[in-house]
Structures are given as structure tokens and as C-alpha cells.
Amino acid sequence: MKRRKKMTEIKLESRKAHHQVNIKKLWNECNYILIFLVIFIVFLIINGSETSWTSITNILLHSSIIGSIAIGMGLVILTDGIDLSVGSMFVFVGGLTILFYNITGSILLTLICALVIGGICGGINGILVGKCKMPPFIVTLSTMLIFRSISQYMMNEMGETRYRIEASMASYTALFEFGNGNVFTIPNLAWVFLFIVLAAIYMTTNMKFGKNIYAVGSNERAAKLAGINVEWVRIKAFAICGALVGIAAFLKIAKDTSFDPATSGMNFELYAIASVVIGGISMSGGKGKVVGIMFGAMAFTIIDKIITALGMNALLNDTVKGIILLIAVGIQMIQKRSSK
Predict the structure, then answer these.
(1) Which superkingdom does the taxonomy of this entry point to (predicted)?
(2) With contact defined as beta carbons under 8 Å apart, do 149 and 89 qualify?
(3) Which residue ranges make up each domain of the chain?
(4) Distance, CA of 230 to CA of 8 (rounded, Å)
């Protein structure tokens, strides 16, 4: 009888321990949702009766550009890399794309142009990191300076202060309506962002390349022994990141029709990294879910709206974001220690 009672107690303890492990695993994998919900609830409380469906869809709209860049940043970080040049690349690609549009007047060709130029810029970073074995921090810090410097130089040589789309173009209205229109009350830019998120989720969960990204970030040596071309994976990750920066630049053009080489894209690299971290992607690579980046980008957008609703000084915006970023990193560190 005692033996049977003891066995029952052991089984109960085993089930309890298994249940605790499952809860812990769920928390580690999905804490980005909780962080987003906490920030979103604070927004709802502060905004009160002024909250509407439009204000909610605007969160997706205002997250679309930085969120698209953050998805690319996330792929690079998953390979244990980083890209500090995305903000400057954004204005560089955007400037060239506007010039291309003003020449051709074609929306489709302009989108392709943005993708190609962005992919080439990202690919250059990837080759320097993957093939030349240069540190990603130094490489992208250098190209960050190069891209913005060239953008400002070109603008100065043209005798202008901003890159602007010529309103005389036949397709100008269609491009502007796309950038500022909506489908089923959801902004077009938000639909594009959601498509990018879904494509990234599919790639990282169902495609060999996506799985290789995690393998390289988790253990580069083991990935090489498994026959994975680590150099090529890194080059492709940076190139995809650049292509997504190109899409983000195109979205900005469609929405605002202009770029300022001095201020456009400023601090985008920091906001993208923050979105990735809040989204639960490990800065050491190989861990995290791409879908979390979407929640991280939206969380950052909501913080802006909370600051505006509270009437706080806009100069404190980055202070609040910095504090939240530190909290997110702290949560990652706690998770890492508790998993050992």
C-alpha cells in the first residue's frame, strides 16, 4: 500500500515538473506577445475613448516601414551578425529609386529598382562579412557612413535639399494612392508588411535556407561539419536584408513622395535592432521566432503613441525606448540563465 502511494506521489511530481517545464518553454518562446500586450493595454488605458479601429490599424501602418527593415535585420542577427547600415542604406536606396522613377515613371520598374539596389548593397555587406571574414560590426558601421555620405553628396551636386518625386509623372497619383490607401479598412502598407512577415515565417520554418540560418547562428562550426555553406548563408541573409530595406524605401516613397538625405532613416538601425530584441530574437544568434519581430516593431510604434498621448516631451521618446530595450535584453539574460 505504501509502495503504491509512493509511486502515485512520484507520478504526480513528474507531471507537475513536466507541466512547469512546458509553461517555462512557452514563456521563453512567446514572451514577446506578453510584452506587446502590456504596452498595448497601457496605450488603450491612456488613449481611452479616443481609441478607434483607425487608430489601431495605424499602428500597423506606422510599423510597416521600420518593421520591414527589422525583419531583414532579424535574419542577419539570427546568423550571429548585425547590420548597422540599414538606416543609411534606406536613404541611399530611396534617393536612387526616386531618381529612377522620375526618369521612367513606372511604378513596377521602380519597385524592382529598389529591390535590386537594396539587394546589391546588402550583398556587398554580406560578401565582406562572409567571404572576406571581416567583423559585421565594422563592415556595416563603415557602409553606414558611406551610404549616407554618398546620398548627401549627390543631393548637394544636384543643388537640392531633398529627393522628390515629380508630381507631373502620369503614374504619380496611382503611386500616392497606393501609399496612402487601404483595403478592407487596413492600410496598403500594412498589407505589404504582413505579407513580408508571412513570407519570412514560411522561409524560416519550411525552407532549407531558413533552417540553415538558425544552424549557422547556433553553432557555426557544427553547421560547417553538417555541410552547410556558412559563407553563402551569411551573404544571402545580408542580401535579403538589403532587399527588404529596398521595399521599405519604396513604401516610404509611395507614402511621402520624398527623402531627406540628412534625416531620413536616422536611427533606423537602432529601432530595427530594438524591434528584433523585443521580438525575442537572441542577439547571440540562432534563437527566436521571426513573428516576434512584428510584435516588437508594433510595440515600438505604440510607445511613440503613448508618449504623444501623455503629452511628454518628444525628446524623451528615445529615453523611454532605451529603457524598454534594456528590460527586453534583461528578460533574455534571465531566460538564458534559467535554461542552463
Answers:
(1) Bacteria
(2) no
(3) 58-334
(4) 50
Structure-derived torsion over alpha carbons of residues 147, 240, 279, 79, reported in degrees to the nearest 10:
-100
CA nearest neighbour of 290 among 298, 300, 280, 299: 280
Contact assessment for residue 169 and residue 41, using Cβ atoms and an 8 Å cutoff:
no
Give CA–CA dist 82/101, Å, rounded. Answer: 31
CA distance 283 to 14: 34
Contact 252, 259 (CB under 8 A): yes
In terms of phi and psi (left: phi > 0; alpha: psi -120 to 50; beta: otherwise), the region of 196 is alpha
Write out the H or E segment, with its range, that includes residue 207.
none
CA 324 to chain centroid: 17
Mean pLDDT of 80-86: 95
Which pTM does this prediction carry? Answer: 0.89
Burial status of residue 154 (CB atoms within 10 A of its CB: 0-12, 13-18, 19 or more): middle
Q: Are 281 and 293 in contact (CB under 8 A)?
A: yes
For 274-298, the pLDDT digits (tens) are 899 888 888 888 888 899 999 999 9
CA of residue 119 relative to chain centroid, distance: 16
38-56 pLDDT, tens per residue? Answer: 888 888 888 776 677 888 8
